[in-house]
Request: fold
Amino acid sequence: MALPTQTDELVPAWREIRAELRRLVGEPAFDIWLAPLEVKAWDGVVLLLQAPAPKQRWVAARFGRIIERCAHAALGAGIRVDFTGGEERGGARAQRDEQPDLLTKLEHVTSLNPRYSFDQFIIGRTNHLAHGASLAVAEHPGQAYNPLFLHAPPGLGKTHLLHAIGNYILAFGASASVRYTTVEAFTNHFITALNTRSLDGFKRAYRDVDVLLIDDVQFLASKAKTEEEFFHTFNALHENGRQLVLTCDRLPRQLAGLEERLRERFESGLVANIDPPDYATRIAILRKRAALDRIAIADADVLEMIAERITDNVRALEGALIRIVAHHSLTSQPIGTELAGTVLDGMYPPPRASAPSISGIQTTVASYYDVTCDELLSSTREARVAWPRQVAIQLARQHTRASLHEIGEAFGGRNHATVIHACKRVADRITSDPEAMQDVDKLGLLIRSQQADRSY
Reply:
């Protein structure tokens, strides 16, 4: 099949290239950087793309390889992609003289990942505070929470939020300048500045920005000179109303190797924790990743199996899905529970099931019937308490491995005959009272779901 050699004949291929780029980099990054690209010329070998003048160098440097890869897939392996800038029109030059252009802002940026955006972040019960605070900071740098200190174990999304803040400000923050760095990069830059006697340039790079994003501040500990310089950088930015966002795998007070004055500054703003995602959030993360990568998974049990096995690391969660898809590609085996089990068993064996606790059942039943646990354990025979107590005893008998004696002891020191009587009363009532049967069924389902989530 002959390749198109005229620009207008390239339209179907260019549409295919754009669709693949949108899938690979994500909607926000595509809309900001790649949507404005236009085909300037095409001679069958070189695809010349035109980008807006302020974006040309950044797009070529940041996305050149991925664009060329997509072009190879659509047009053939011998294709080369080049870029040209669009012409400035109207008052564009005058406007650029009044405020820094996009390239000036990007000089302060170190490898922000365009795929890390707020749109791609799954919000759940365990991360909604960190997400909300990060979005507030992105919308109002220096005004919302300053500093913002994101705390989480590795793999739970704190770096994702850090990049999302930077990407959001670059897209919507007018002339605000952003710099993202890790503590390791900051340290290396500082050492180089010392050795080359270029400290003034180093200070300008970090103190003249509007937003400084610092990843992994736990690595500042035991680096005396770097810590001193970071302290002064922090003060210079904070005193001038510039925004600081920091991430760490431990709380400020747990940074034993860090000077007290820095720990106090870290705690002076908002410290937002991110905990491991619950089961529902893990499922949502997997569905989002599958949709983003256009992975067709007909069997929902696959995602459930991954979410059951991997409970405390989002990167590991997504990595497991990628491994399953890779095995599918290599073996042509359908993406189902059999393939998922084979891939997961070696690294993430099935969790051992554990029985619910009697105290947990008591708490669940008491909450459902609006009584207290103390009342369940008391000697009162009031109807509003007696029936919930009997239900709780029956559910403890059904869902735990405890003996009749152990159950009786857990319910205020009752004997085994009382436990048997309670179970009989519940069994008799649910055969004639549909509402009571519905309540007991709901409670049983609630106890099983709560225990399943704790097992994950």
